Amino acid sequence: MAADMQRKRSSECPDGTLAPSDGQSMERAESPTPGLAQGMEPGAGQEGAMFVHARSYEDLTESEDGAASGDSPKEGAGGPPPLPADMRQISQDFSELSTQLTDGYKVVFVRRSPLVLVAVARTRQSAQELAQELLYIYYQILSLLTGAQLSHIFQQKQNYDLRRLLSGSERITDNLLQLMARDPSFLMGAARCLPLAAAVRDAVSASLQQARARSLVFSILLARNQLVALVRRKDQFLHPIDLHLLFNLISSSSSFREGEAWTPVCLPKFNAAGFFHAHISYLEPDTDLCLLLVSTDREDFFAVSDCRRRFQERLRKRGAHLALREALRTPYYSVAQVGIPDLRHFLYKSKSSGLFTSPEIEAPYTSEEEQERLLGLYQYLHSRAHNASRPLKTIYYTGPNENLLAWVTGAFELYMCYSPLGTKASAVSAIHKLMRWIRKEEDRLFILTPLTY
Fold it and tell me: How far, in Å, are 145, 152, 160, 275, 343 from residue 155 at the CA level?
């Protein structure tokens, strides 16, 4: 049962704070440098962290035995190569992350007992990044079934066709694949916040904190896959992967707009053994504000529903309700606000908070094809920066349509896209201007003071 919750070790986040491990000053610099301690970068929470701080990728070398099946790509001219028909052979040959390059396609296998997951793609993404996407699919399966049920099924019948149990959930998996193809949240391994005045966000968070029940573990307000506020039980942390799965669950179905839903959900990075129960509802049918209340008690629907009512009452008393509706009219900000002429777009992640920010994608990336191409360039830089054998801290990429710069430190990650007419010197000099702007706007772009019950 989800009540047997995993607790974050105190040594990883002592007293709910993130102190620099190297004894550097706790003062927050105006323009961070590569030596800035984690927790001092723009966007770092000042009262503690909301998320578990994990590495960018799982350790894929600790595989387990087992096999499963998946749909093989269709064979045809110009298409990907057919996969081996004997999945037992795959389980023997690919005990770890494996990649084959055939006709320009990458074939990546990841084993998570009792499953073998396969990706076939022609992409700039590295094998590690494709493996991470496969892991999202694996965690999505766990969120529907739990790890305990999955293991039990294959212990009873090793050749069980898992599609029987997953029938009807195809839209959730399809939506996840679509999100990973266009949303940089998955690439960055972080959540994006709705730009919001600090006073309004504080009022929303305080309202969530006060409208609680004994069984609640997480109270989350979101809008269009952007985080508005999150309140957690003390000493309990939410992994960004679990948050992404919750976002995917909500965005994959319009039925949540019709009333109050009460549904079992497993948060596999928190506790893969059992289900929580999630109360999901939109504050109003005509808005994108969705309230998600995660409970350990499946019989607690009415108490949790009353939390929703009390939360809305407090929002109105504090005058935050209208401010939220106003913020939804401009859910993204323009890159022009930064004041750097050649800058077209950027991604910035605060590693200690698990949050990132980016402006609205504007011209010349208005078409879906151009947006996917831009994300592909970010994926390429990300794969080079996080290469397992030769990671890079700074990368400058020049292309016919744009220039890009990547800067990865122990505290943050920054990916910037410039006009092709810009120079490397101008791009480097603009970094500090951008970082100063993020620092200035951080209380609007990030959650700096996360609350607990």
Answer: 15, 5, 10, 20, 55
Q: According to the model, what pLDDT value does residue 105 have?
A: 83
φ, ψ at 88 (rounded to 5°): -65, -40
> How much is the pLDDT for 90?
46
Please give the distance of CA 183 from its chain centroid, rounded to a whole number. Answer: 9
Strands 412-418 and 343-350: antiparallel
Residue 101: its pLDDT value, please? 66
DSSP classification of residue 82 = P
| Cβ atoms < 10 Å from Cβ of 151 | 16
Q: Yes or no: say if 179 and 245 are a contact pair by the CB < 8 Å rule.
A: no
Question: 293, 312 in Cβ contact below 8 A?
Answer: no
Q: Which helix (H) or strand (E) holds 306?
A: helix 301-318
Buried residues in 3-19 as b, exposed as e (16+ CB within 10 A): eebeeeeeeebeebebe
What residues in the chain have per-residue pLDDT under 50? 1-36, 53-78, 83-96
Neighbour tally for 214: CB within 10 Å: 10
Round to whole Å and give the CA distance between 382 and 27.
29
Beta-sheet strand order (sheet of 343-350): 191-192, 355-357, 343-350, 412-418, 403-408, 394-398
| Per-residue model confidence (pLDDT) at position 286 | 86
Q: Which of 41, 25, 20 is nearest to 414 (CA)?
A: 41
Give 287: exposed, middle or buried? Use CB within 10 Å, 0-12, 13-18, 19+: middle
pLDDT at residue 106, rounded to an integer:
85
What is the amino acid identity at position 193?
Answer: C
* 8 Å CB contact between 32 and 412: yes
pLDDT of residue 49: 55
Residue indicated by tokens 């066709």? 161
Q: What is the DSSP letter of 184?
A: H
CA distance 184 to 378: 9
Determine the Cα–Cα distance for residues 276 and 116; give it in Å rounded to an integer.
26
User: Six-digit token pair at 185?
Assistant: 């949240």
For residues 252 and 172, the answer to whether their CB atoms sit within 8 Å is yes
